[in-house]
Structures are given as C-alpha cells and as structure tokens.
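Backbone-to-sequence.
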C-alpha cells in the first residue's frame, strides 16, 4: 500500500465518483479500526456505497491503486475479519433492501445489509424464516453471515448459513459481475471454457478437485464431515462432494441430525450440484464482493416450545447429560457455566432473567424442544429428566415455557457480551472460543483442553452449543501484558493441536479471521493450505479483497487492540470510576458486540440515536471506542480535548439505555458527562449549554413576571428570533411558566393540608424538582393532593436543584456541588420509613444513579445510604399498597383506558412495572405500556436546532405512531416532563403525569383546598 498522504490523495480522486459517502477523517477511521475481536488496525478510510455501481468503482479503484477493500456489515466478527488497513466498505447503511420474496418456492433475495431479525420479521408473515439464527441476530447482516458462514443455537436442525445460500451475485477482483448458483454438469463445463476471470476460477477448481492426490489430501485432512459446524479455510472439502467430482454424493444421509435438510434437498436438487456459494460462504470477504444473496427459507418451527434448564454440578456432568439430551431430538442444547452465570448477577437486565436458576449450579444445560402440543413436550421432558436422573446427572430440571422462555435465551445470548464484565484488565479472551468436535468426543476433548490450560496456569469460561459439539471456551488473559500476549498464542496453538487430534474444526461458526488463519496449515495440512493459497491467487491476484484473512494471515498475536506493555494510564475524574478501575477501563468495557446497533424489532432501546440514524457514529460502541482511543493515545495535557470525541458524544441522548441494556454495562451517559466537563475546561462552555444548565435561574427570574415571560415565549415573532439566536429549533414550543411555583404553593398550603389529614398513614418528604417547580406546577399540586388524600403527611424541606440540567450538559463540577448540598440536606432527615419521594424520574433517580458516584469520598457513604430512601412516586405508592395502607377501593370503579410511555431513566434504572401497577389500582382501568424507549426529547436535546431532526426521528420510531393511532378517549400517561412535551410537539396530544391520572381517579376527591386544580 502507498504511504498515508499518497493514499489520501488518491482517495480524494475517488470521492466525486461515488454516490455513497467516503470518510477519511480520524474519527471515522478509528470507529472502524476494531470489530468484536481483540484486533485493531486503522483503515485508510471508510466508504458507505450507495449501490452496486459504487462497489464496482471501488474495486477498479482498489486494483488500480493497490488499496485493499474490507467488506463489512455490522462488524460483529469475533476473529478480526473486518479489521484491516485498507478501505473499509460498510454496506450496512444503504444496501439494506429485501429485493424479492418467493414464498411458494421458499426463497428470498436480499442485499447484504439486511439484518437477520428484520428479514425474519418480514418473512414470518409467509410462515417462513431463515434457519441459522446467530446470537447477534438483532444486528448481524446477511452479507456478514454468508462471509462468516454463521449459524446459531438451532444448528442441529437448521445447519449453517452455507446450507441455505442458493446463489450470490457480486463482483470479482477485476470488477466483472458474476452470479454463482447451482450448476448442472453441462453448465459447469461451459463455465470452465473461455478467458474471463470467472472462467479461470471454474477451471482452476475443476483442476484442483479432479486431481486424485488433492482429493485424498482433502478427504483425509479436513475436519470430520460429521461435524456440520466447520469453518476452517475455504470449504473445498464440500465442493469436492458435489456432482462433477463425487457424483453428487452430498445426500440427506449426511444430515441425519437435520430433519429440515432432507426437506431442503427434496426441494432443491441443486444442493448436490456444484455451487460456488459453498466456497463463498465462510470466505470472509476474501474472494468476491457480494451485492445480492438468494437464501433458502424454512417453515416456521412448531408453535409450542419449552426449555428444560438442566442444573448440573459440574461441566463434565453436563457434557454427559448432553449425550442423553440429544437422543430426544431437541432443537438445541446449550451450555452455560458458572462463571458466565455469575457475570450476569450484576447486570440490571440480566438479573431479572436469572429467575430460573436455583442454587449455585456448576453448569446449566438448556435443552430446547419444539413440538405441536405442550403435552407432547412435557412428556418428552419428563422422559429425558428420568433418564438423566437415573444416570446421576442433574439436580433440578425447571421447564420454561413462553413468554419466560425468551428471558432464558436473552440471558444466554447476553453471555458472550457479559463476559467483558470482568473488571480490570484480565478478561475472558476469544481465542479458543469456537472449536467444534463431535458431541461424543466432547468429554475427552474438554479433559485434554483443561489439562492444557492447567499446565499453563490458566482458567477458562465455558459457554457452548454443546448439542452440535461447539464450545466457546475463553481463557482469562490480560492482553495488555506481553507475557499474556505470548500465552494467547500458546493457547491458540495448543488448542489447535487438540482439535486436530479429535478431527474437529478450529472454528465452528465464528470463522478464521486474524485469529485462526495462522493455524489453518496445521488443521488441514500444508498441501491443502497451498491449494487455498492458489485459489486466493487465482480469484484475487492483486490481493485487494480483505487481505490477511484465511491465507497469508500474520501471527495471531499481532495488531492487537491494546499495545502490550504500554504503561497503564490513570485520569483524574469527577465521577467515581473505581468499580470499573478508572474511566479508561470503563470505556474499554466495550467489546464491540454491537448490541447497540439495535432496531425496533428487538423491543430494546439501546441506542436510540443509532436506531434513528443508522450510522455507526451514532452507536454506543463508537462512543466507547473513540473515548478509549483518545484516552489511550492522546498526547495532549488534557486528553479529553478532542473534537472527535465531541462529535461521537454529540448525538448521545443520555437516555441511559446502555447502562442497563449493554451486556458490558457501558454507561455512556456518565462517560459523556465526564468528558464534556473536561472538554469545556479547554474549550469553554457554549452559551446555549450554560443557558440550559442554568435554566432554573432563568425560570426563577421569569417566575417573578410569568405573564411577560410567557408572552415572549408564545409570541411567534419574538420566540423565533430568540430561538434562532440561541440555537434552539424554531419548530419547538418552549415550556411556559406557571403563575406560581410549586415551592410557593407548598409554603402556602401544606400546613393546612397536613392539619386536615383524617387518618395518617405515614409521612414523606417531597422532592420538588426544578421542572415541576416552575413549569409543571399543576402536576406537582395534584401529586401532593393525591398523597394527602391517601393519608400521607407531605413534608417539604427547602433544597437545591436536582442537578439534572448540569449533568446532561456536562457541568459536572456544579452538579457535584448540588449533589453534595442535597446529600447533606436529606441525609439523616429521610429514611425508608419517611422517604424522599420524587415526581420527575430524571430528577429523583439522580440520587440513586449519579449522586453516589459524584459525591466524592467524604460523602459517598452517606449518598449510598440516602439512595436507599429515595423513591419515585409510583414506587412509594406501590410499596404502601403492598403494606396494605392504600387499597384499590380508594379509587373510582369507572372504566378507563390508559397508555403509558415510560421515562427512559426509569426504564434503565428502575422499572415501569410499578407505574403500570399503580395505574391499574382503579379496578376498571386497563393499562398498556407503549413499547417505546427514549421519547427523543431527552431534556434539552430535542430543543437544540441541530438535534431536532434526530429527536423527532426517535419519536417516530414507535412513540408517535402508537399515540397517533390511539383513540382520543384513551388517557396518555408519561412521567417525564420532556416526554410530555415531546408527545405534544410530535402528535398534538396532551399527556398526563401518571400521578395526575391517579389523582383524577380518586373516589370522593376533595377539591376545596386553596389553589387546587379544578
Ligand atoms: C456476542 C456475539 C455473539 C455471537 N454469536 C454468534 C453465533 O451465535 N453464531 C455465529 O455464527 N456467530 C456469532 N457471532 C459472530 C458474528 O456475529 C457473526 O459472524 C455474524 O454473522 C457476522 O455478521 P456481521 O454483519 O457482523 O458481519 P461482519 O463482521 O461485518 O462481516 C463478517 C464477514 O463477512 C464479510 N462480508 C460482509 N459483507 C460482505 C459482502 N457484501 N461481500 C463479501 N463479504 C462480506 C466481511 O468481510 C467479514 O469477513 C457472535 C458475535 C458476537 C460479538
Ligand atoms: S457499547 Fe455495549 S453493546 Fe455496544 S458494542 Fe460495546 S459492549 Fe457491545
Ligand atoms: S445513553 Fe442512550 S443515547 Fe447515549 S449511548 Fe447510551 S443508549 Fe445511546
């Protein structure tokens, strides 16, 4: 490759040629320097082609200028497949169409950037789906699945992607367009004639596979054909078993474990004919650039499903139990070991998903059955349990049916990502995590593997698709330590030798990439490896397609994400990052799994900015990676002082969804706030940020003359001028001030209210946040009256702001002072018996989320203690309901329908279940939660002119359409002040705070308090 300035110059000549985007700046290059593996290489640039014409131009440019192309979709590869120094070509943005569905013939034609879950959502309407389901199905794309020959938990039934690729179209390295599909003998011979590159590659393959010595070498050295999951090198062993060479010997008998395979072959006899798709699947972008893929679809599995979660004492016991399970024709058998289960204990979402775990099992086998009836499944499960118990395997066998079943799979899916939660630098490393041997060989294989690890003084995390002999074994290593980097290599090499001993495949599903390429000669023999080199040379003589993968792979412990032996860097921070061993390691928690490249199909909400924009720079991953890069490599005295970090953080809505949904608990809202303060320290605080942070001071002044203030906000002329001058979106309405403040109202009315209490159920302190105090005063009054009516003395102790506006704008020093004031005010005053209760989730939850990390060593303990006495209004009410002090009888029996939009902070840090339960107290209220995440307003984010569009797009994902189709008779409830505003701006509907809804539902309500709402 040419030198960097030369490459940049050449790339500039390419830019005007492309319809898609070309990025050559540092931030974009760094975002694409890693995937979900341990590797890192900074590319020369990133291209997002608009269509196949762009790809053709790229290929011609690449060969002319000797700049490699790295095809990429979601970048979830675990072996470094999409890491390289050339141009990363990301087709995930524009090439995302489902082109044609033929339900009758059970196939679909797609572009490479179609997400698996989205595809399945579409074809399920036709009773079909794409069989191989990876754990990454929410974001991995068909191009990447074909590239890596991916498969999933149900590979016993559905095989791997290769089994379902009917044809692929795309470009060869000379820019010629080809389509690969099943060929008759005659068609094959015709393809071998002529002088095009396509003709040459057919001819070469014919020559290689017709040679008896090659045939002998391939059959004796490639992995055992009974192991269906195998991704070692190019799959010439499978091409050898096709018609021109083996008279179509690939038959149904080769798939005894795959009932669907027999259907597949009956359906399409071309499966046994020569088809280069077998080679392309698993070729990791090294042979061609795919632009279209035709996939086989299979009928949806039987409706009834259940899991048996076999609790075993040891892994060895689980591996024996697996052999029994396989006799009962399960859809899948998965293994999770204790280390993985322990990792899920501290993850907010995964804790909830551990409901089925009893005691402290050494391993759990998850055995899945799908049958026509529930009884059929129950019978099978009982028989299997009895046989296992007789053999002395397993001590607890809970059966889990839908909907809980999904939670078990969610826990299992989170497994690999959650592994990153090992605090500090020692982490379970993907190195031997993808071996496949026959299930009956597993106990012996594991014995040898354990002995090898023990000899090296290592331990390991076990996680596996044991039903198909696939083990995700991850030894714990510190890849910052040069000694462990050597061990990394030793472990890989020794594992390869053991896999070879058991005729297994070094990769069962994740592919060779940078990680395993080095060992392909060992796995398939030097002779066969030389054939692979010949193939690559013929297909891609200029080595422009994803070099260094499969052939010519450098040593597997080079080009790693961390520089071995580099001195550890520590940074002074305002937040306490002790639990993650410092801010840099908090960023390093991101392992690239890309759960944050999320979409609405999953029902999850990390990351809304990516969901709205579909750009890698809007992902949580990009934010964590860029922060890691600059904190690691910056030479500035203030390492936060980089516009690149600002760029990726800018579209973060601070919704905190990542804190609960990222399997590695990457908490960008906290990292962003910390970053902003340091960034401002070098660059100054923008006026608008200052205004937003100090909005309460402005509101305090405005509240002296609310009429005048509101006039200027409501007057379109004045309002537009001020919004434009200050950088706010003109289309936004600015929150108006109430004629009084809540604090003022409380001062006037609380004594009388408390004196007038009939029966006193208890007392609480009200936290009067700045939004309720100035803007949503009626909500505040109704909440107070609600508590009062229910028999609670509402106390008020004047206090500081919540600090939310300072936190969200990154004015952390000020937020810290505020937090300290509040901690001092309420510590000793409130207790679980007399708690502090808040109305606005983003304000009160600061006591539980940010304050303990912000308080500083002197106040930390107090802050943690205080956080246990801080409740949301609905949490308090439901606690009192459970204590029998509040009853549904106190509310109307009139029917009503309510739709709730939950606040994103509440969803991430607490739960909206309490709100749903609270709103269901009136016996005839039917309450439904809108499956929305962050509303898109996110405090001031949606008011800012450059964020308005993203904000509205986030609203349009689910919330707005759902509200628009809701009848006006239905009450819309939303606890967040920003959410209510966003709903109003986006749909014109008025949403009520849930406490207001409950207030309105009080039976025998009294209105005669001064100032009470009418
Ligand atoms: C937490 C986690 C769990 C995982 N679980 C599984 C699992 O259960 N099963 C499994 O099989 N894998 C699993 N993987 C690995 C990975 O998710 C899969 O390999 C996935 O299919 C890759 O898809 P992608 O869109 O991310 O592809 P990428 O990583 O972007 O690319 C994969 C390969 O395809 C090539 N490619 C992409 N597009 C094209 C194109 N248009 N033309 C030519 N080549 C192209 C790339 O060059 C690369 O070599 C897991 C990974 C993680 C991080
Ligand atoms: S931020 Fe979390 S979900 Fe996103 S890639 Fe990193 S670890 Fe995965
Ligand atoms: S806080 Fe929300 S918007 Fe920001 S990175 Fe996390 S999930 Fe994305």
């Amino acid at each position: 490759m040419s030198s960097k300035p030369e490459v940049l110059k050449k790339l500039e000549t390419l830019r005007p040629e492309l319809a898609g985007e070309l990025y050559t700046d540092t931030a974009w290059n760094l975002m694409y320097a890693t995937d979900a593996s341990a590797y890192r290489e900074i590319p020369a640039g990133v291209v997002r082609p608009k269509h196949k014409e762009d790809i053709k131009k790229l290929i011609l440019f690449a060969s002319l200028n000797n700049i490699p192309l790295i095809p990429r979709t979601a970048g979830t590869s675990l072996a470094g497949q999409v890491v390289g120094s050339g141009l990363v070509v990301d087709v995930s943005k524009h090439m995302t169409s489902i082109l044609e569905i033929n339900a009758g013939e059970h196939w679909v034609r797609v572009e490479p950037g179609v997400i698996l879950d989205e595809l399945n959502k579409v074809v399920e309407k036709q009773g079909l789906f794409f069989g191989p389901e990876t754990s990454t199905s929410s974001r991995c794309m068909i191009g990447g699945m074909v590239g890596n020959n991916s498969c999933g938990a149900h590979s016993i039934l559905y095989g791997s992607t290769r089994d379902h690729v009917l044809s692929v179209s795309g470009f060869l390295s000379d820019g010629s367009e080809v389509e690969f599909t099943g060929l008759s003998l005659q068609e094959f011979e015709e393809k071998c004639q002529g002088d095009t590159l396509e003709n040459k590659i057919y001819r070469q393959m014919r020559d290689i596979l017709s040679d008896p010595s090659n045939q002998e070498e391939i059959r004796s050295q490639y992995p055992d054909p009974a192991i269906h999951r195998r991704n070692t090198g190019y799959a010439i062993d499978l091409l050898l078993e096709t018609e021109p060479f083996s008279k179509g010997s690939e038959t149904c008998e080769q798939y005894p474990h795959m009932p669907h395979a027999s259907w597949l072959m009956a359906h399409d006899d071309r499966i046994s004919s020569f088809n280069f798709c077998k080679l392309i699947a698993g070729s990791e972008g090294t042979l061609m650039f795919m632009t279209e893929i035709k996939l086989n679809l299979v009928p949806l599995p039987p409706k009834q499903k259940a899991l048996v979660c076999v609790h075993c004492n040891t892994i060895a016991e689980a591996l024996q139990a697996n052999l029994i399970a396989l006799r009962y024709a399960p859809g899948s058998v998965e293994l999770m070991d204790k280390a993985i289960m322990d990792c899920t204990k501290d993850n907010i979402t995964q804790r909830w998903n551990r409901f089925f775990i009893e005691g402290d099992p050494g391993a759990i086998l998850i055995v899945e059955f799908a049958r026509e009836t529930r009884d059929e499944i129950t019978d099978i499960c009982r028989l299997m349990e009895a046989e296992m118990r007789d053999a002395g395997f397993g001590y607890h066998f809970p059966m889990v049916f839908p909907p809980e079943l999904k939670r078990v799979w969610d826990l299992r899916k989170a497994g690999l990502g959650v592994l990153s939660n090992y605090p500090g630098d020692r982490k379970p490393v993907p190195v031997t995590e993808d071996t496949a041997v026959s299930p009956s060989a597993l106990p012996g294989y594991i014995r040898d593997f354990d002995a090898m690890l023990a000899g090296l003084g290592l331990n390991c995390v076990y996680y596996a698709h044991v039903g198909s002999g696939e083990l995700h074994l991850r030894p714990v290593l510190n890849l910052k330590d040069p000694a462990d980097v050597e061990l990394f290599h030793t472990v890989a090499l020794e594992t390869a030798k053991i896999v070879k001993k058991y005729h297994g495949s070094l990769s069962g599903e994740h592919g060779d990439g940078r990680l395993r390429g080095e060992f392909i000669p060992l796995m398939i023999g030097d002779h066969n490896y030389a054939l692979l080199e010949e193939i690559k040379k013929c297909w891609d003589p200029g080595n422009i397609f994803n070099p260094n993968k499969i052939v010519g792979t450098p040593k597997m412990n080079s080009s790693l994400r961390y520089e071995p032996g580099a001195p550890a860097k520590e940074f002074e921070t305002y937040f306490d990052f002790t639990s993650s061993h410092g801010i840099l390691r908090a960023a390093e928690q991101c392992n690239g799994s890309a759960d944050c490249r999320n979409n609405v199909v999953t029902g999850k909400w990390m990351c809304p900015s990516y969901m709205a924009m579909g750009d890698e720079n809007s992902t949580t991953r990009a934010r964590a990676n860029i922060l890691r890069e600059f904190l690691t490599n910056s030479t500035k005295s203030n390492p936060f002082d980089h516009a690149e970090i600002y760029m990726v953080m800018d579209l973060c809505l601070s919704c905190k969804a990542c804190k609960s949904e990222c399997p590695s608990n990457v908490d960008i809202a906290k990292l962003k706030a910390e970053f902003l303060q340091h960034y401002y320290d070098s660059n100054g605080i923008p006026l608008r940020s200052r205004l937003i942070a100090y909005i309460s001071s402005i509101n305090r002044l405005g509240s002296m003359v609310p009429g005048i203030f509101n006039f200027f906000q409501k007057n379109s002329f004045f309002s537009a001028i001020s919004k434009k001058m200050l950088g706010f979106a003109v289309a936004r309405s600015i929150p108006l001030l109430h004629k009084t403040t809540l604090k003022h109202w409380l001062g006037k009315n609380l004594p009388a209210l408390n004196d007038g209490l009939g029966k006193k159920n208890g007392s609480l302190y009200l936290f009067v946040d700045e939004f309720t105090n100035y803007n949503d005063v009626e909500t505040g009054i109704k909440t107070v009256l609600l508590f009062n009516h229910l028999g609670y003395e509402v106390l008020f102790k004047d206090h500081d702001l919540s600090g939310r506006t300072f936190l969200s704008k990154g004015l952390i020093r000020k937020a810290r002072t505020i937090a300290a004031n509040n901690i001092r005010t309420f510590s000793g005053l409130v207790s679980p018996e007399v708690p502090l209760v808040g109305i606005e989730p983003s304000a009160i939850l600061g006591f539980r989320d940010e304050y303990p990390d912000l308080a500083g060593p002197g106040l930390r303990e107090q802050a943690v203690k205080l956080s246990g006495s801080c409740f949301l209004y609905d949490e308090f009410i439901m606690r009192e309901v459970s204590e029998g002090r509040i009853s549904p009888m106190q509310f109307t029996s009139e029917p009503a329908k309510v739709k709730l939009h939950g606040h994103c902070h509440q969803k991430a840090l607490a739960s909206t279940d309490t709100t749903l339960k609270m709103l269901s107290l009136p016996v005839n209220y039917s309450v439904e939660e809108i499956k929305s995440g962050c509303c898109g307003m996110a405090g001031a984010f949606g008011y800012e002119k450059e964020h308005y569009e993203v904000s509205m797009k986030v609203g349009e994902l689910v919330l707005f359409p759902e509200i628009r189709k809701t009848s006006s008779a239905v009450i819309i409830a939303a606890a967040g002040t920003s959410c209510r505003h966003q709903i109003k701006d986006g749909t014109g509907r008025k949403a009520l705070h849930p406490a207001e809804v409950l207030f309105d539902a009080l039976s025998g309500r009294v209105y005669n308090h001064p100032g009470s709402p009418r």
